[in-house]
Structures are given as C-alpha cells and as structure tokens.
Design brief:
This protein is mostly beta strands. It has a single domain, classed as Methylamine Dehydrogenase, Chain H. The protein is built from 2 helices and 27 strands. Strands 1-2-3-4 form a 4-stranded antiparallel β-sheet. Strands 5-6-7-8 form a 4-stranded antiparallel β-sheet, with no helix packed on it. A 4-stranded antiparallel β-sheet has the order 9-10-11-12, with no helix packed on it. Strand 9 and strand 10 form a beta hairpin. The chain is globular and about 45 Å long.
C-alpha cells in the first residue's frame, strides 16, 4: 500500500519532528500549515493543474504552486491544517479540492492561493487517498476501508456512500486508492486484488471489474483513444478498450511498483518506486522503461508545455536529470 505507507510515514515524522506524543497527533494535524523556507523540497504526494498553474500537495499540509511550468514554486498563503495531504484536483482554474489524513477535505476558490476546511474527522484517522470533481458542484473522495464521500454542492455537504461488497467478500473493506473519469460519464476507482470499481451514474452505484490480476492497483487513466489503463504492484499494467468489460495485461518490462499513470498525447507516462519511468508513445506501441540514477520514490507527474514530465517525490519536486535503461 504505497500511498498508505508514505502518508503514515509522513505523519510519524511530523510527530517526531515537532516533539509530539501519539496522543496529540490529531491536535497537531488540525493546526494551520507551517510556512517552510523551501516548500517544494517537502514530501509531495500528488499534483494537478489549475488552468496553467501547477499545484502539488504533501506532508505537513504543504501546498505548493507554480505559474511557470514547474521552474519555480511558492507555498500557498493559507492552509488550515497540518495533516498530510495525499491528493488534489481542480474542476477549473479557480475551484479545487485537496484530501488526506483524518479524512480532511480542503477547498479553494482562488486557484490554490488560499484554502478552507470543508471536512475533518479527528475521531478516527481514516485517510482519503483520492478526490475527483467532474464539475464545480459534483465531486467524490475515496480512501481507507472503502470510505467514499460524495458532494453535489461544491463540498458544502459531503455524504458517505455505501460501497457494495466485493465478489466473494462478506463486507466492503477494500482500500480505494484512485478515482478517475473517462470524460464520457463513467467513473473508475483503482482498488486491491486487481479490482477496479466502475459507476455510470455519477457515483450512485458501483460494480466491480476484475482485471485478472491479484495485486493492488494504485493508479489509472482514461486515454483520448478510449483506452483505460490501470497499474500498480510490481509494474503490473492492465488495459481495457471496452469500458472495463474485458482486460488484457500489458508487458511493460517494468519491475518496480507503479504509483501514477498520466496521459501524454496519444500515449502514457507511468512512474513508480526506484526512480522508474515508463513511456508508451502511441496505442499498442512498445514501452520504454528507464530508471533515474537517484532511485527516487516517485509519487506524481505532470506534463509540461514541452511534453516532458515534471516529477514529484518523497523529497519534493525533482530536477530533470538523465535516466538509465
């Protein structure tokens, strides 16, 4: 559980660094984020675009912004929590949401400059791992033990959704790692044991799709061609060309676990552990797998104006350095 382990590690380091005892971690997490001298060097777990702006989130409630395609970064002016933030999404250039530990949900209406808290449950540390808004009003957040929250009023109210039991299971307790859309009304969620959840009614009802794999899936993407590609444990990749009805494994040659997959033109770029970067340039073409010399734990990627990935990691934003095959 890569994202689970990374976020838990971030919380533990936060408590030790600030001299907190385990009983006061929740109190600390609810405090406003600290202003860091080099915020782009903090652990960053996810990144997205708010129009032309890049926005990344991570440990200690850090949120960093770039208006020059990732060349320089600055910290958001106002973030009301110090909890680790694991995911971020924007519906347009102004309206965005971030989620993380203690089920926190933050919202912004000024492109990420300032954030307001919409939800936080300090009674149980049930983190949210992913969030997606298909409009400025309609959003869904997912996380640990099948936690699923939905809103249809821009996050003013969040409602817990009932997730169906997986096939052969007595209860819905799978971790839900990444939610994404195909842009045509269908939603998908990467989960455990090779399972993908799908909804065609804005998240009201879900069905389980078996990819044929048995490992955890941490990321997925819907490509412009209509392909759905999901990936995760030990470099596993699965592709569907019929909306998830059938899946075929893709042999990328990658051995390291995949943490994120993003569309890059007609192809895709995947990143993962051990500095692994994989590229597929077009539908059905072979993969190019490379490895960064620093073996960095890569957590997120954005494609810049030049078509190259801006990479994020446990040590923050990474410089573009050569990779080895």
């Amino acid at each position: 559980m890569i994202r689970t382990l990374v976020t838990c590690m971030a919380l533990c380091m936060s408590a030790v660094a600030l001299g907190q005892t385990p009983g006061t971690v929740a109190d600390w997490a609810a405090k406003p984020a600290h202003a860091w001298a080099e915020p782009s060097h903090r652990m960053l777990l996810d990144a997205t675009r708010a129009g032309k702006r890049m926005v990344a989130v991570g440990e200690h409630g850090v949120i960093v912004l770039s208006d020059n395609d990732g060349k320089t970064w600055r910290q958001a002016q106002q973030v009301p929590v110090s909890a680790t933030l694991s995911a971020v999404t924007f519906a347009d250039s102004e309206h965005g949401w971030a989620v993380g530990q203690w089920g926190v949900i933050l919202a912004t209406s000024d492109g990420g400059q300032t954030w307001q808290k919409q939800r936080m449950d300090l009674s149980v540390d049930q983190p949210l791992f992913s969030v997606l808004f298909t409009s400025a009003q309609d959003g869904i957040a997912v996380g640990l033990w099948s936690l699923m929250l939905a809103t249809h009023d821009g996050g003013q109210t969040w409602t817990k959704m009932i997730v169906p039991k997986p096939p052969g299971s007595s209860r819905a307790d799978r971790n839900l790692y990444h939610v994404f859309s195909d842009g045509h009304g269908a939603l998908y969620i990467d989960s455990e044991q090779g399972m993908v959840l799908k909804s065609t009614d804005r998240g009201a009802n879900w069905s389980y799709l078996a990819t044929g794999g048995k490992g955890t899936l941490w990321s997925g993407v819907a490509l412009p061609s209509g392909r759905i590609v999901v990936g995760g444990l030990l470099g596993s990749l699965y592709q569907s060309s019929d909306g998830g009805a059938t899946w075929v494994p893709l042999n990328s040659g990658a051995k390291s676990s995949i943490t994120e997959i993003v569309a890059a033109g007609d192809g895709l770029i995947g990143i993962g552990l051990d500095g692994m970067v994989l590229k597929q340039r077009a539908d059905g073409s072979s993969f190019e797998v490379t490895q960064r010399p620093d073996r960095a734990t890569l957590t997120a990627a954005l494609i810049n104006a030049g078509g190259k990935p801006v990479l994020f990691s446990q040590t923050g934003v990474l410089q573009d350095i050569s990779v080895s095959k």
